[in-house]
Structures are given as C-alpha cells and as structure tokens.
Amino acid sequence: MRFLIPGLMLTLLAGCAQNPVTGSNDFVMMSESQEIAVGRQNDEQVKKQYRVYGSKALQDYVNSVGQRIARNSHRPNLQYHFTVLDTPDINAFALPGGYIYITRGILAYLNSEAELAAVLGHEIGHVTARHGVRQQSAAQAANIGITIASIFVPEMNSPVAGNLINLGGGALLSGYGREHELEADRLGAQYLARTDYDPQAIITVISVLKNQELEDARLAKQEGREPRRYHGLFATHPDNDTRLHQAVDEAEKNTSAHAHFEGRREFLAATEGLVFNDNSEQGVVRYNAFYHGELGIAVQFPDNWQVHNLPTALVAVSPQGEVQLQMKLDESPSGTPGEYARRLAGRSAQITTLSVNGLPAALFDQPDAAGGVVFHNGQAFILLAKGKTPDILAAHRAEIISTVRSFHAITAAERRLVKPLTLHVITARAGDTFSALAKDSPLGQSAEDYLRLINARYPSGEPQAGQLIKLVR
Ligand SMILES: [Zn+2]
After folding, report:
1. Same domain, 347 and 238
2. Ligand 1 centroid from CA 207, angstroms
3. Residues 248 and 336 both lie in one domain
4. Residues of the chain with pLDDT > 90: what percent?
5. pTM, full prediction
6. What CATH number has the domain bearing residue 445?
7. How far is the CA of 258 from the centre of ligand 1 (A)?
8. Is residue 134 within 8 Å of residue 98, measured between CB atoms?
9. Which of 80, 203, 367, 439 could make an S-S bridge to 98, C-beta 3.0–4.6 Å?
10. Ligand 1 centre and the CA of 244: distance in Å?
C-alpha cells in the first residue's frame, strides 16, 4: 500500500503569512481559510484511498486524546479531525488545516495513552508549524509542483471505469525532512507537557518505531511484502540524538509538579481486538499473490511488480511504473466471458476464449490494452493492463497473460493465510516468556519478534507477573 496521495491543488498567492509557532513571516502563500479548504478536499481523497477503521469506540478514543492535546497547541482554535485508518502501514500524517490520521498499524506497536499522545502531538506540531503548507509553497516556488503521473488515457468503458491511482510524489506520507521532523517533535513535547503527559513519551515512541523499522526489513522479506516504516525516523538511533533529547528536556522543565498520566491500561483496553497486519476483508498480498477469502479467489502477479490493494481496485505496477494491471469485480456480469471481453475491449480487439484452472475465461488483446475476464461464482473478475505506449504494453504481454492464467479458486491452505489476526491483552503470570507465548502463534516463525516489538520488549526482556501484555491471535 505504498501509493501516494494526489498532489494538493493550490492557488498561488503573493506574499507571506505569519507562522503561528514562531510569529515570524514565512514564505507561505496560503491564508488559513485556504489551508483549511485544502485540508478538507484532500481529506476526501485520503478516505477514498485508505479505509477508515471500523471501530467507533477506537475512533472516539483517539479523537478525545487528540482534541485535548490540540487545545494546548499553538493553534487551539483550529478545528481538528483525528481519523484511524484501516491499514497495516506504520504511519501517522497531517494535512494542512488540522486533518490528522493515524494508522491501526502504528497503534499496534504503542503501549500507552502517553505514546498515542506523542504521535498525535508530533502531527499537531506539523499542523501548527504549517509544514505541509510550507513544503507545498517551496515546491511551487521552485516550479516543481507535485506531478500526477497518470499513465492512463481516459478509461475505455465500464465496469473498469473508476478510481485509478495516480503515481506521484508527496511529503505527506514520507515526512518533511530532518529539520521539520525535529520541530514537530519539539512542539509535540511541549503540547504533551501542557496536557500532563510525559514529554519523554516522544523518545519512547521513536525508539519503539525505530526497533520496528530495523526488524521489519527482515520480517517483510520473510513474508514477501513491502517493509513498513514511520516517516519521522532518521538514521540516528533516538538514544544518540542529542538535539531530540534537548528538545524533550526543554519541554520537561515546563511540566507541572503533579504526576504525568501514562494511561497504559486505558490504551490497551481501547486497542483490545485491534486487527493486526492485513485485514482479511480486504484480501491479503503475499509474495505478490493476492488472496481473498470471501470472494474465494487467488491470483499471482508477476515478480518485481508492486501490488497495491486499494479499496476500489487491486493494482499491480510494473518495475518501471510503465504498465498498470488492475483487477476489478463485476458482481452481475451478462453473457459469456467472450462476449464480456468483446464489450470491454471493443470490436477491433482479439478475443480468445479458454478455461483458466477450470473457470470459464477470455483473453482480450488490442494495442492499448490487454488482459482477461474470468467468471467465478457468478461474478466476473476483470484483469486489465494498460501501458505508457503500445510497445511497452507489448513487451509485458506475456506477464499479463500469465497473471490471468494464474487466477484460481482459493485453496484450503491459501484460505488459512487470509484469516485476520487481532490483538488481545492478557495478564502475564510468573514464568511467562515471550518465546513460550509465541508457541503455536498464527504469526509462525516471526511470532516472538512481533510479540517483543508490539510489547516494547525488543530485543530482550520478559513479561513480569501481573503485567498487561498483548498477544496476537
Ligand atoms: Zn513527522
């Protein structure tokens, strides 16, 4: 799911705006009302591209923590929106104007309300310091803009029409560079202090996510997926980052005398039952194969292609990004696969009917598009590839056809891969070890590493009797 948010469409306005944090004039070409409008527009895009996580209780909890911190920020009057996104990606990001997102992926690795507050405080810091706006303005000034590199000509016809992803660039998901990230940490630490959380939670969170990042490269390889990484991380380990420690210590000085609220029990209760890693309702991608239990299908995409499992489509992109292969579903197709393919690809297309792993199917081929239609359980699965040029498409034709030919009804063994995993909190007993708790885990050989990472006991340390710990079931 390493797709990117389409570029923010902004109007250039001359002049500078005052920065809410520093009070100085920034090279920013947007008023606050424009900033909010940009945030609102792009909020719709984000929610289309990512799913909003289904638990209202969890959304409310995250929102209540976020709103408390926002009231103590440099822009307390801005209206803030906090949304948990249903993705295993490890991320949190902010749009201009107070729209803040945190993934369920990152929540699984946190262990207290103070740590959640630290992540949200960091993102609020990006909003109050107007990093998104500043970044955008600098890019525009340099006349770079953000390219929406859609390689597609307008869609042929339904049912394939719809939401094609744009391959482009953007700082939202990838971070803002070292200086802005440090500034967001510094601001986040101040806001935590004012909200009676310990500002040190910022360093705890960065350490937890750093460990996750270091270990995830290996886990991702084992599981045949893309590594997951938080945008605010840099090469140095947070333990050795003197500027980060200074920023947090500074905030610590201003905390009130009474005890900080940690909220470990509250946070773990709120995240009980949280979906961990892939959500099977969306299907899962393993070693470039896509499995969907409910639809009862499996399909293998070419090696080295990137497979994006989006809410509206499954999209595979060739290594150079010049060919996109989409799979879509038509729930009530009419006619035979051959007739369907003919309607889809047009009169001039070459149509070949065949059986794909026992399922009725048809391949279609024309200079601008290639692919196939497979019927299964009364539904049509359409695999449609388009290339930047007919030559480029032709060069990938064999891979496209073999993808269509790999389509099959899901097997019992594959079905086991798509069972959703969830977090459960237990009270550790004397003598419990992560290695013993990892036995018979559905996470397989990675289980102990995952348990250590999500419980912040990586690489060593064991649960203490009476302590709440998370398991994955
Ligand atoms: Zn950041």
Report:
1. no
2. 15
3. no
4. 54
5. 0.71
6. 3.10.350.10
7. 29
8. no
9. 80
10. 13
